[in-house]
Amino acid sequence: MIRLTKVRIHQYKSIENALDMDVESDITVLMGKNEAGKTNILEALAKSRYFDREDKKFCYDPLPDYPRRRKKILDSQETTPLAVTATYQVSELLLEQIQKEMLLEAKSSQFSRITDYRGRHQVVESGFDYDLYEFWETYVSRKEPCLERYRRLLASIRTKEAFQEFYKQEAPSCSMEEKNALRNIEKFFRNPHRWANPLNEYVYRTYLLPNLPKFMYYDECYMLPSRISLDRLQNEEELTPQERTAKAFLMLADIDVDQVVHGGCFENYKSELETAQGRLNEELLKYWSANRNLRIEFEIVREELPEAQPEKKRRFFLFGKKEKAEPRYTNWLEIRIRDVQSMISLPLENRSKGFNWFFSFWVWFKAIREYEEVPYILLLDEPGMHLHATAQRDLVDFMKDLSAKYQIVYTTHSPYMLEELKEKVYCVENEGKGTTIYRLDEKD
């Protein structure tokens, strides 16, 4: 419902001067030489609104992130430098929802959000800027006529505390209808972000922020392992990127980790696993044309752990009974890839790195698309670099399908990742004066 239309990266590593870039509604491709600054563009964007706020890797740090040649300028500044300004376009549907409540038309359907190096945000150049007097005149006349005598006074209130003080003073002389109407409009004054205009803050907090896309940066660290500890997936709060992909895989396979770990009989899962294997293989082969003979196989394995030594107990003659320790188990999900032509199966990690990367990528983003309602912008650094030409084209086809729901920005050196998207390609250069960018089809 909200899409990114353009970005300005103020300063970040090799980006010494402000870099402006338009963002396509579906796929944006960045090409350029090594060390031109392509990855820096993705990182700067990711850190401005990363999907996982606990991941410290994607927080701005002036020491490594600010351009080295400008470090002295940074040290002399009293204010925190700006990192990224992102400009967004609100969809017609969301625009209608906002106008239905606010009654007044927005000045435009765009707004910009600045992030500084401390991760603080500020909304600027917003089309959702309401005149307080015009709003309350319209709102009172059309929705709450009983508040006519308070119309001008409401336009002067800016905070929740000020509204509560006003209500406390006026409530004794108010009719029941007026009291109910005042309770209905209290939401417009909550203003937890302490904006100068509480109406602008209300629209941003209620409509824009919940629909604002988050950036997701994907690289090789998300590749699936061949063996996954189900116990860790169930009990650990901080999962590795590999384990997150494994969790996504289990979601696609409809495997309930809790039931597996605490269940008594794995035979009950056999038919479900076979059904899931067939479905996943069929769907994967829609995109993997390089080798149609490969099939995913997975199995749940329960291993008994060595018996723990029981605590020594004092025994008096024949009294007391030695208690037998309950057996303890660990549960694993094993993923193998079978070649039906050669009839040989190998652990996933023993297949080619290209296939493992493609399979992991497909699992992660298929799960995101099916199970996540959070709006994302996907940032992909050199996707498919281990794939040959046919598989890279397959990857582009999969990303085209993903782009129906998500915006995608990716970097590449491969001509096979460029040829179908020529009108969406931006060239990144660094000729010694910092990173610059231009659209390929607009080059003189």
TrEMBL record:
Residues 273-417 form the Endonuclease GajA/Old nuclease/RecF-like AAA domain. It comes from the Bacteria. Pfam families: AAA_15. InterPro entries: AAA_GajA/Old/RecF-like, Bact_Antivir_Def_Nuclease, P-loop_NTPase. PANTHER family: ATP/GTP PHOSPHATASE (PTHR43581), ATP_GTP PHOSPHATASE (PTHR43581:SF4). This is Endonuclease GajA/Old nuclease/RecF-like AAA domain-containing protein.
